[in-house]
């Protein structure tokens, strides 16, 4: 590598067919020694993106190479908030993949937007909740600049994604926060309870019904309630939970 870099006819910024430079590939592989060697060459562009607009820094965050992330952050030319072609930031990728160490490194910076959504409107928190990355979710929820109710372009907030992916533990973590809205509607007018009932997620339904602010009778855009969704799919245990909740509510009127 050193011999090649010393040659006048070798351009260290030359990309491959995918637009990936030697620095990009070294960052992806986590080769800190090679990354430092390349950065020692004054002509290397440390923020040069590939064909999908992912920079070496974004790539290192995506695959969880914390050491490379630290090295690249010391380069003034590196933009730690630069988005790829899907509008995804390095923090988005680190949160999505559950790279706790990288997430912590990035959140130490004041110039990052921890709630920056991608082109589909999903925030780092939303994607981490969907993937079940508990530690990342807890870190993000601990920040004042992260909104736990931010919906994506289909109207689905983090709770919706946690329910849809069947992440009971994640649903529990989100519901422990009093400011998480349990009645958020997606584009079809469905609440998280609608989906949990439709999919027969008994424990998730049970957790949702424990919230005082839940509205189990709210119809979606087709007029279906959580109960009718469960009945349509034949989820008898969910039906029993919803009927018991309804009977209890009528009993207190």
Question: Would you write up a description of this structure?
Answer:
By secondary structure, the protein is mostly helical. The protein is 48% helix and 0% strand. The protein has 2 domains: 1-112, Ankyrin repeat-containing domain (Serine Threonine Protein Phosphatase 5, Tetratricopeptide repeat); 182-253, Serine Threonine Protein Phosphatase 5, Tetratricopeptide repeat (Alpha Horseshoe). The chain has 15 helices and no strands. The model has no long low-confidence stretch (mean pLDDT 91).
List the helices and strands and how they pair.
Blueprint (H helix, E strand, L loop, with lengths): L1 H4 L16 H8 L2 H8 L16 H8 L2 H8 L16 H8 L2 H8 L16 H8 L2 H8 L16 H7 L3 H8 L16 H7 L3 H8 L16 H8 L2 H16 L2
Helix pairs in contact: 2-3, 2-4, 4-5, 4-6, 6-7, 6-8, 8-9, 8-10, 10-11, 10-12, 11-13, 12-13, 12-14, 13-15, 14-15
What descriptors fit this protein?
single chain, 253 residues, mainly alpha, Serine Threonine Protein Phosphatase 5, Tetratricopeptide repeat, 15 helices, 0% strand
Number of helices: 15
CATH uppermost class of the largest domain = Mainly Alpha
Structural class of the helices, strands and pairings? mainly alpha
Domains, number: 2
Overall 3D form: elongated
Radius of gyration: 23 Å
- Might you state the CATH topology name of the largest domain? Serine Threonine Protein Phosphatase 5, Tetratricopeptide repeat
What is the terminal-to-terminal distance? Answer: 78 Å
CATH superfamily membership of the largest domain: Ankyrin repeat-containing domain
Give the helix level as a range of percent. Answer: 40-55%
Share in β-strands = under 5%
How would you characterize the largest beta sheet?
A: none
Mean pLDDT: 91
CATH architecture descriptor name of the largest domain: Alpha Horseshoe
Say how many strands there are. Answer: 0
């Amino acid at each position: 590598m050193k011999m090649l870099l010393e040659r006048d006819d070798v351009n260290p910024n030359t990309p491959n067919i995918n637009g990936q430079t030697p620095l990009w590939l070294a960052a992806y592989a986590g080769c800190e020694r090679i990354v430092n060697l390349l950065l020692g060459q004054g002509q290397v562009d440390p923020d040069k993106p590939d064909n999908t607009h992912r920079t070496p820094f974004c790539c290192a965050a995506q695959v969880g190479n914390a050491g490379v992330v630290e090295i690249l952050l010391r380069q003034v030319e590196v933009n730690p908030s630069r988005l790829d072609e899907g509008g995804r930031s390095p923090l988005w990728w680190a949160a999505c993949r559950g790279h706790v160490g990288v997430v912590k490194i990035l959140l130490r910076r004041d110039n990052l937007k921890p709630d920056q959504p991608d082109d589909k409107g999903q925030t780092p928190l939303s994607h981490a909740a969907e993937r079940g990355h508990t530690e990342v979710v807890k870190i993000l929820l601990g920040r004042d600049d992260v909104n736990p109710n931010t919906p994506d372009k289909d109207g689905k907030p983090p709770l919706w994604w946690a329910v849809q992916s069947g992440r009971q533990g994640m649903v529990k973590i989100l519901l422990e926060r009093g400011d998480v809205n349990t009645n958020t509607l997606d584009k079809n007018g469905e609440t998280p309870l609608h989906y949990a009932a439709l999919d027969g997620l008994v424990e998730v339904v049970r957790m949702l019904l424990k919230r005082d602010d839940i509205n189990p009778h709210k119809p979606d855009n087709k007029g279906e309630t959580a109960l009718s969704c469960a009945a349509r799919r034949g989820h008898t245990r969910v039906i029993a939970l919803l009927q018991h909740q309804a009977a209890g509510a009528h009993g207190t009127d």
